[in-house]
Every structure is written in C-alpha cells, then in structure tokens.
Amino acid sequence: MDSPAMGMGTPPYDAVLCDFDGVVNLWDPDGSTALDRSWGLAEGTLAAVAFEAGLLEAAVTGHLSDEQWRRRVADGLAPMCGSAGRARDLVAAWSALTGRVDTEVVALLAALRGTVPVVLVSNATTRLETYLAAVGLAEAFDAVVSSARIGVAKPDPRVFTTAAGRAGAEPRRCLFVDDSLGNVTAARTVGMAGLHYRNIGQLREAVAPLLG
C-alpha cells in the first residue's frame, strides 16, 4: 500500500518531509522538447545532454555549481546547435522556464506547519534557494535540505536522516512524501513512513490525523 496506515489517538508523525519537483512544483513535460523543436533539434536532445547521469550527479551533489552545470550543458549542445552562441541561447531559454506551483499542496503543507515541522527534501542544484524565492516559496518550509548543499542525493540514506535531524524528529516518526517510488523505498529503509505521491487526495488522507 502506498499510503501509510493511520491510527487513532496520538498523531502518527512528528514531522513531514516533502519532495519538491513532482509534488510541490510541477514542470510542463513538453518544456524542453518544445525548445528542442524551436532550435531545430531532435526531441529529447536537450534533456539527454542536461540530464546525462554523471553530469547531473555532479550538479545535484554540489560538485558543480548550477552555473557550471549549465555551461557544461551549453558546451555539450554546441555541436548540435551549430554554434556556441546558439547553444548558450538555448540553455538561457531553458533556464528561464519555471514550473507550476501546486497551490493546493502548498496550502496543505502550510496548514500542517501549525502542528509539525515541514521540511523540503530535494535533489537540486545550487539554484534551489533562488528558485524558491522566485516562485514565492522562500518561507514555505521550516527547513530546506538540498542535495547540492549536503553533498549527497536521494536515495542515499543520509539525505533522509539529515532531513529528520533538521526537523528535530526521529526518522521513525517522519512521513516522507515523494513522487519517486525509489526514494520512498529508500526512506522506508531508515524507518520512515513513506507516501508515493500521485495526487493531493493521497496526501490529504495521509496527514488528516495531524489536522484534527
């Protein structure tokens, strides 16, 4: 079962730990492919270069800054774009994209903060804090655990234990919410309850005992 079982009486959690992309922030699945088409590239080209496993890992563990990562992406795209300038323009257009903040999820998390700490736990580049401010979420969480700042990324168990520590809670008393089943499974290995997020109804049901 994806959602954890809930009991009566004592609230089941002392903290809620929540992923960002795919839960709070929703990206247009056609965003990068639309840019591929605009630049005359095969669909999937931008994503293939930007999210190449080794390069992405370096970016989300802080071994490369966000700016360095994007420069590497532009360098990788230059041969396909026909010039370094066109590649830089493509990366600039891609960097300007923003996701859609799910205001229902944000409102629910805000309500929870009256009862338990809510910690954002994201595999992100060093741009995360700037992005949160840009979309109006700089103050939306009690703490932010960014993989780029701690040097390890989900599903590494240290991410989850670090997040629990920021919340001041034992891992076994945390609910972890993520749209990646692999990350949810990893959180469960350190004793957390895990919710494989697919819609807000699941989240509402899981946290209902915390809201009275």
Question: What does the model show?
Answer:
It is a single chain. The protein is α/β, with parallel strands linked by helices and 212 residues long. It folds into two domains: 125 residues, Rossmann fold; 65 residues, no CATH class. 49% of the residues lie in helices and 12% in strands. The longest helix has 16 residues. The two termini are 23 Å apart. The N terminus is likely disordered.
Structural class: alpha/beta
- The number of distinct helices, counting runs of at least 4 residues, comes to 11
Question: Unreliable segments (pLDDT under 50, ≥5 consecutive)?
Answer: 1-7
CATH class of the largest domain: Alpha Beta
The shape is elongated
> How many strands?
7
How confident is the prediction overall: mean pLDDT? 95
Annotated CATH topology of the largest domain: Rossmann fold
CATH architecture of the largest domain: 3-Layer(aba) Sandwich
Q: Gyration radius, to the nearest Å?
A: 18 Å
Measured by DSSP, the beta-strand proportion falls in 5-15%
Q: State the CATH superfamily name of the largest domain.
A: HAD superfamily/HAD-like
Q: Output the strand order for the largest sheet.
A: 5-4-1-6-7
- The percentage helix is 40-55%
Give the tally of structural domains. 2
CA-to-CA gap between the ends?
23 Å
Sketch the major β-sheet: 5 strands, parallel
List the helices and strands in order: EEHHHHHEHEHEHHEHEH
